[in-house]
Amino acid sequence: MLRQIPLSALLLGLASILPTTVASPFDKAEALAECLSKSGVPTDSFESPDWKLDVSPFNLRLNYTPVGIVVPSNVQHIQDAVACAVRIGVKANAKCGGHSYGSFGLGGEDGHLTIEMDRMNKIILDNTTGIARVEGGARLGHVASELYNQGKRAVSHGTCPGVGVGGHALHGGYGMSSHTKGLALDWIVGATVVLANSTVVNCSKTENPDIFWAIRGAGSSIGIVTEFRFATFQVPDVVTIFVAPVNWRTEAAATIGFKAVQDFALNEMPAELNMRLFIAKAFTNLEGLFYGDKAGLQAALAPLMKKTNATLALAQQGDWLAQVKHFGNGVNVDQTHPYNYHETFYSSSLYTNELNETQMAAFVSYWFKHAKSNKRDWYVQIDLHGGKTSAVSKPDPAETAYAHRDYLFMYLFYDRVDKGVYPTEGFTTVGNFVKNVTNTLEDNSWGQYINYPDSRMDQETAQARYWGQHLPRLQAIKKQVDPDNLFHFPQGVLPA
Ligand SMILES: Cc1cc2nc3c(=O)[nH]c(=O)nc-3n(C[C@H](O)[C@H](O)[C@H](O)COP(=O)(O)OP(=O)(O)OC[C@H]3O[C@@H](n4cnc5c(N)ncnc54)[C@H](O)[C@@H]3O)c2cc1C
Ligand SMILES: *[C@@H]1O[C@H](CO)[C@@H](O)[C@H](O)[C@H]1NC(C)=O
Ligand SMILES: *[C@@H]1O[C@H](CO)[C@@H](O)[C@H](O)[C@H]1NC(C)=O
Ligand SMILES: *[C@@H]1O[C@H](CO)[C@@H](O)[C@H](O)[C@H]1NC(C)=O
Ligand SMILES: *[C@@H]1O[C@H](CO)[C@@H](O)[C@H](O)[C@H]1NC(C)=O
Ligand SMILES: *[C@@H]1O[C@H](CO)[C@@H](O)[C@H](O)[C@H]1NC(C)=O
Ligand SMILES: *[C@@H]1O[C@H](CO)[C@@H](O)[C@H](O)[C@H]1NC(C)=O
Description:
Elements: H1 4-10, H2 29-39, H3 49-54, E1 68-70, H4 75-88, E2 92-95, E3 113-116, E4 123-125, E5 131-135, H5 140-151, E6 153-154, H6 165-171, H7 178-181, E7 188-194, E8 200-203, H8 209-218, E9 224-231, E10 233-234, E11 239-246, H9 251-268, E12 273-280, E13 284-290, H10 294-308, E14 314-318, H11 320-327, E15 344-352, H12 357-369, E16 377-384, E17 409-417, H13 425-438, H14 459-467, H15 471-481
Parallel strand pairs: 1-3, 2-3
Antiparallel strand pairs: 4-5, 5-9, 6-10, 7-8, 7-9, 11-13, 11-14, 12-13, 12-16, 15-17, 16-17
One 2-acetamido-2-deoxy-beta-D-glucopyranose is lined by residues 366, 370, 432, 435-436, 439.
């Protein structure tokens, strides 16, 4: 048997006309199932209702078929599943909320073992230390609900209640509290991780500090986080959500308006304000969350309102859960299993610093001359991510593997269809938007966000864009903890 491997390698050139002799992961499905069964790891049986639910990613454009799906309910199950994947020779990935835009929870390609974490979603808040133990399969809405109910506390995180804490917090986690309170990963104080050799380790600032550093930015490439320890903050009694539409009819007006937003983010924006410029097909809004009451919000926004001609259409005081619900688009906040909401889309992203005139003109020009004629349901969300007053930019960039703290703006480009297949023409529309901007930027003066991935990038480019200056250290750690790249996916960190 073994001798056939080099032979088949010689025949690779003929593979397209000969019946394939290269082993497919699906040839190993039976052996894998047997190993898992012997170890007592719970699995979804092929095509069962649970299989269908668990195999279905948020982004239906990128469906992949795993070689098996395990549904662990404890750490030992995960260790055993990892051991079987290694023994049988298939790749393995954790899937938490399944919300990766590249379906990386399924491995981003066919034939991986999916470790479906979402049944492991317990959350226990220690009221005396303020530290929450959050299992690696919880969804953000469940985290927010539990922390609030158990002690009126919270972690900073993004907006969609169905997003998994696993993917979200291990790669960034930016939301409507981040300008005030930082990224989700800034609140991680420790974690329990199953490594590729199926050992389980804890990590923190003092225990396995390299692993602790690496999971805060690139966790999916390092191991499977079974539990997070999050520090938490006491939620403010009153917060104010707001929506302020702008009506920039011409490129000239949009340039003045966007420039005013940029100047505000650089110089005046109070730490208590969290805001994005949301550009959609039919409208453009300034929108966000203020830590404080309506009068405080109005005072904070006043200088910007004049310069942008924005009107404050909505400014509503409420409690913490009310804002979570608002930014979650009104869906039930406390999401667990089963979860079954999907879209069909293509996305890309960008981080930039302050744009100069040429660069801003490039953005606005593509927006008006090309994006506006895109008939699909598209948007560009520009988060006011960094800057002097932002909590995201406060920590030393070397403290975690998140490589983008210093950037002022974080852009999400999102283009979806309501039904049917996403058209290939969309790749050009979105891609050209990004390229028209990056074309005017110096090399190495911009980045991209793996939680808003561009699924069409090759692995080498993706690694550079997602991890920038941190890539060499990440690849060295990857070599130590996962030299054979068990936790592979097409845009993951490769071992040095
Ligand atoms: C509707 C929607 C709204 C969003 N809003 C925001 C937002 O406001 N801010 C923001 O920053 N992002 C946002 N995102 C992006 C989101 O943060 C990422 O898609 C995130 O990676 C999703 O995590 P997940 O666990 O749901 O995804 P999955 O597809 O399950 O996992 C994503 C990646 O993380 C890995 N992973 C998951 N769990 C673990 C674990 N326990 N241990 C190790 N690796 C793990 C997977 O293997 C995979 O590589 C949004 C996404 C959607 C779909
Ligand atoms: C934690 O504190 C809150 C607020 O003081 C209280 O309502 C809740 O019961 C406490 N929870 C636990 C588990 O002690
Ligand atoms: C990891 O830390 C948790 C919580 O402190 C503890 O219960 C567990 O035993 C530790 N595991 C290891 C492998 O050290
Ligand atoms: C705001 O309105 C004034 C008066 O109509 C106009 O001169 C200015 O260009 C507008 N600015 C923007 C950013 O729309
Ligand atoms: C903006 O910056 C780019 C890249 O450094 C440069 O090529 C361009 O000339 C600058 N434009 C202006 C108006 O300064
Ligand atoms: C900018 O967009 C236009 C219009 O879609 C496209 O023709 C051009 O190639 C793009 N520029 C770059 C550098 O990609
Ligand atoms: C598992 O991998 C870790 C990280 O490389 C290493 O420290 C540990 O010794 C390994 N354990 C075993 C049993 O090989």
